[in-house]
Specification:
- The protein has twelve helices and four strands.
- It is elongated, with a radius of gyration of 32 Å.
- 30% of the residues are buried.
Length: 378
């Protein structure tokens, strides 16, 4: 039976809505906006009552309809008489009104002009900067307590995280490093071959990998692999109230969760960078020997003559900074996560993007400093 809705007005100022038939998601329920408009255009009343004696079936669709209808009438100052509703509906409506809706359940995109859009981005950027400054300050305090022997960080957690960020990352680092070295060699050799200078492929690949690409590619891979994992882990702990449980138990999340993750990346990523440098150079050797008639001996001699220890030191130093920034981005976004499943995905995505942005900005600053100080001067 299709849903039916009748309006019964009485001289005493009470308007009764008679609900009949099946009010479910499969039936054609009257839109709430039309009913509200009908109530406004009809006879004046002060009390809204309900008659559900002929109501056959109902589900959550009726609850949604009644909740919106009651909220609209209460906003106008009218009294609601719920005695005519079924007992189950009365209980569910009371339960729905007992707990306020969370602020982060719905995302409302408010339209605005270009100026409002730029202003919103500027405000969000400023808030992110303040969050970053606060997070770095708390991290420094946690590290200070670690140096004083007062930290609650567990060594077993640090060992487990080092294993996850170090040995477990070797396969993907190996693949990408070899491919990057081969790409550098091939791109450079195409131009060097015009001048008969294929032997300088070794210079291009060696310097590129040692100074820049080894650290950069390793950091970006760790941002997508480990930084995202950190954000997802801490975000899930936030959703499950595990972070609050740690605070209630007297454990600092910065010392117990964040500090070992930062130390794990800081300690492992320099070794991964050196490993990537070596494999990238070997990848360049494969291209030089296989496609451009440069023997492995010539390639090795050129590498030994051109590369110096400072070239590797700069790249490894950059990678250590990148590791700290990737860990900070992942942990910060994870702790900022809201308490729903969608927010965990957003925090993970934001951790990767934020980590890559930090990597690029810091790399530009460090490259400028290295160039200004003339570190590579022979």
């Amino acid at each position: 039976m299709n849903p039916q809705l009748d309006y019964i007005a009485t001289p005493s100022g009470t308007l009764t809505l008679r609900l009949a038939g099946a009010w479910t998601t499969q039936t054609n329920i009257p839109p709430t906006a039309e009913v509200l408009a009908r109530l406004e255009s009809g006879a004046a009343f002060t009390v809204l009552a309900f008659d559900c004696a002929e109501l056959s079936r109902w589900d959550s669709r009726l609850l949604t309809f009644l909740k919106a209808l009651i909220a609209g009438q209460e906003a106008l100052g009218r009294r609601i008489d719920r005695s005519g509703l079924p007992r189950g509906i009365q209980g569910m409506l009371a339960l729905a009104n007992a707990v306020p809706e969370r602020e982060d359940v719905h995302r409302i995109d408010k339209p605005g002009g270009l100026l409002a859009l730029l202003g919103g981005h500027a405000l969000r950027g400023w808030r992110d900067f303040l969050h970053l400054a606060d997070f770095i300050g708390e991290t420094c305090l946690a590290f200070g307590r670690l140096l004083l022997g007062r930290s609650c960080m567990r060594a077993v957690d640090l060992g487990r995280l080092i294993q996850g960020t170090g040995p477990h990352a070797l396969p993907i680092i190996s693949l990408i490093a070899v491919l990057v070295g081969m790409i550098l060699a091939f791109v450079g050799a195409v131009q060097l071959k015009l001048f008969g200078a294929q032997v300088f492929i070794a210079d291009l690949v060696g310097l590129g990998m040692a100074r820049e690409m080894g650290a950069m590619m390793t950091a970006i891979l760790m941002a997508g692999r480990t930084g995202a994992a950190y954000a997802a882990e801490l975000g899930s702990m936030t959703v499950n109230d595990e972070i609050d449980a740690l605070k209630t138990s007297g454990f600092s999340p910065m010392e117990f969760l964040v500090l070992p993750r930062i130390l794990a990346l800081f300690l492992t990523i320099p070794f991964l960078c050196l490993y990537a440098d070596i494999l990238g150079i070997l990848g360049g050797a494969l291209v030089a020997a296989g496609m451009f008639d440069v023997s492995f001996a010539e390639y090795q001699i050129q590498i030994q003559n051109r590369l110096r220890l400072i070239d590797f030191e700069v790249g490894i130093g950059k990678s250590a900074v990148f590791g700290i920034l990737v860990a900070i981005a992942g942990c910060m976004r994870g702790l900022q996560c809201q308490r729903n499943a969608t927010a965990v995905g957003l925090a993970t995505t934001s951790a990767v993007v934020t980590g890559i942005v930090y990597i690029v900005i810091s790399d530009a600053i460090m490259t400028l400093l290295v160039t200004t100080l003339n570190v590579f001067k022979r």
